[in-house]
User: Which sequence fits this backbone?
DNA sequence: ATTAGCACTCTGATCGGGTGAGTGCTAAAA
DNA sequence: TTTTAGCACTCACCCGATCAGAGTGCTAAT
């Protein structure tokens, strides 16, 4: 059977209505609320066809229809047209991202929170370090003997510090020397390519301080591995509470499972595509986390200098306003790319 | 009316039973389950007295009784005896705190998580910086002109960094000089006492670089104020999901409000006593956050060198196992004090 | 091909009786 | 005087019956 123009219109109307009401929608409702130009009986026949084709389904005999995953998929791919954001909203978002840009983490957290307020859905930002590049490293004295502070500066503006064991006492002057040596060599390394060449070269220069150096190199190495390891990806949620308001989660078990997953951040990371360029809409069971079977996830990566460095996503029930969410995700990802790039170290 | 031994026994039994079952407890249940040596009729009379005295109440006529806040208060103050923790649990806790001690924040987060698993309640750690003392400060070059990295080391071992605007370009050598000057002066300042004297002195030494210095001083000042400001207190939750399992929260509105408060961390900070020495049990409306009217909060501060630097607490429904919770809070606060002190800078 | 009409289905809300745990009171027993 | 047995009474909760409303599928007329 072909899906003709009238069927498309009816499917569109069903989804539109179901998104708004969360109630199964019947033929009479459609003929009343939407100007389809045919009677409810005709709509009934068409709906029967649409059901047979798998685009909609009936929770039980004699109830209205709800869209199936296939129906949503068709809607997203062919029917909806993402509306442009209102200028006010757009400004708000860009302002939010830009204003906190000196504390990148804050910017992410605030953006997630803002978007979830605007959409009444849950939003997620993942910041991955995989592609960020080390720009500078400093070794500084710490007040415990045998330990020093290692501070790293990355090309996306991030600054991080950690305390590392080096097993012996070193004077501030020596640390300064070490810092200089490392920075001379560091140039532009990303987690993947530092390991051998550079480290060995540094090692040779300070062969006389062998044990110290091997400690340091180990630390740097470990830092790099940590950066590479997706476990250090940071996850920021906004509006997790909004899920409670969704009628499909009026159920304690579901809420508990859902919040359980929110706490286990790595599961979220697994769901967000990180290298896929462009926008991805995952509907219902298209994502593989059991708890999210009733949810859809709309994501896009943001990039620095063309390389994806994280992703932004909106999570909601399968019955969500895809148009608006898609528009929002696109806009946020682009804004993040633009603003973070403008802040990042010039190549 | 006096509360005699038998009444105490009955009150104790009521609370004991209610804590376990979450159901109003009746006279017959008591006479069956507890060896009180009197008939249910007698217990009924005593319960009637206890109600009149305000220690228990009846949700509705012809239901069993539940403890009132006054009842819990009496129980906590006079009836219960906090059991010692099992050795295994104690070891587990100390190990958890000690193992992550190089990343203090991680230690807090893990401890909160562990305790909530052990108690099936929610736990909170607040780390406040109010009393920590600045040990060292470093100014380091950043890759954006007009900005530098400021790194601070505190006596509790914390290391923090931030990027600050200084409005002009400064060479690494100059930054080194500034670092030296500041560190000479810093000695041991806590957020409260740095402000005037020290800063002005530094200022005089570098009067020729006036604008730069004023920027720097502003930044340091701001940092100190931020530290003083309770907004930067960090809050770590563990087991917030446990609240969902409590029968008193089988209600969507309550759950939503509760999680709303968990997200607004400053409200929690307001509830936790920060200077009170020793252990505090707040029952029901004794805390002033509306959402927590059905909750009790048991807290203690932990200290470094005798000064409170944060607090640990367990949050649960008023109907919670006070004995175990109190034992737990005491033990955790003491362990935190001990282990963090042992790590902190020697005075 | 479309529509009006109708019988039928299913959900969800409402109502009323029955059950069981619990109480307060009274009068008898200790 | 205190304790206990006995009894009438209260309420929350469960269960089944009933009813209205929304929706469907089918048939016959347009």
Assistant:
């Amino acid at each position: 059977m072909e899906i003709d123009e009238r069927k498309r219109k009816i499917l569109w109307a069903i989804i539109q209505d179901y998104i708004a009401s969360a109630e199964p929608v019947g033929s009479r409702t459609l003929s009343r609320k939407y100007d389809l130009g045919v009677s409810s009986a005709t709509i009934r026949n068409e709906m029967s066809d649409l059901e047979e084709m798998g685009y909609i389904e009936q929770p039980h005999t004699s109830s209205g229809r709800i869209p199936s995953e296939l129906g949503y998929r068709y809607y997203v791919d062919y029917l909806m047209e993402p509306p442009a954001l209102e200028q006010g909203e757009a400004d708000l978002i860009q302002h939010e991202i830009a204003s906190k840009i000196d504390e990148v983490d804050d910017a992410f957290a605030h953006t997630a929170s803002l978007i979830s307020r605007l959409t009444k859905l849950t939003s997620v930002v993942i910041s991955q370090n995989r592609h960020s590049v080390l720009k500078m490293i400093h070794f500084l004295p710490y007040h415990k003997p045998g330990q020093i502070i290692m501070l790293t500066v990355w090309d996306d503006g991030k600054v991080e510090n950690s305390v590392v064991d080096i097993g012996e006492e070193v004077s501030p002057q020596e640390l300064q020397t070490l810092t200089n040596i490392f920075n001379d060599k560091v140039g532009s390394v990303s987690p993947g390519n530092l390991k051998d060449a550079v480290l060995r070269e540094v090692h040779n220069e300070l062969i006389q301080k062998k044990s110290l150096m091997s400690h340091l190199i180990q630390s740097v190495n470990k830092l790099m591995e940590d950066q590479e390891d997706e476990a250090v990806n940071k996850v920021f949620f906004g509006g997790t509470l909004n899920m409670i308001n969704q009628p499909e989660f009026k159920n304690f078990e579901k809420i508990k499972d859902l919040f359980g997953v929110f706490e286990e951040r790595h599961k979220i990371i697994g769901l967000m595509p990180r290298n896929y360029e462009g926008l991805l809409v995952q509907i219902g069971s298209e994502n593989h986390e059991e708890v999210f079977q009733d949810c859809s996830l709309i994501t896009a990566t943001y990039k620095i200098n063309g390389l994806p460095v994280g992703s932004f996503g909106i999570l909601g029930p399968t019955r969500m306003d895809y148009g608006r969410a898609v528009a929002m995700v696109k806009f946020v990802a682009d804004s993040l790319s633009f603003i973070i790039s403008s802040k990042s170290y010039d190549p």
